[in-house]
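Task card 7
Instruction: Convert sequence to structure tokens.
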Amino acid sequence: MTKWLTQEEQEVWRLWVGVTQRLFNEFEDDLQTQSGLTMSDYEILVTLSESPGGEARMSELAERAIISRSRLTYRVDRMVKSGLVTRADADQDRRGVVAKLTDAGMQHLVDAAPKHVDKVQQLLFSQLDGEDVQALKGILDKLDDRSSD
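Output:
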């Protein structure tokens, strides 16, 4: 039997959805305007930049960048055409595919990151004090599926 949301839970849920969607849309719009990147593109570039040798298997990249494999394939194909990443068969077994950050992709990330970080600071962290940040981190850790692994 369905346990319906209490009035308070419903208010929190609607607030959560509204705030996260608004913030995501603002981050996405700003990234698009400033650098031509989507949030997914940005996360892919960041994930690759943090990977040894600037490369990762597509399956690992999908998991770490929190994107579906089919959507990742589409995004990486577009990024290959733009010269931001390359794709190749994995050296070890030839069954997997590896995405690798190009020099142009790294430069694009270096150019985009300061403006994106400024927007994150402006829309999120400038609104919170240190206690708020710790409380939010604690809540998000509880909600993060990966933290229960």
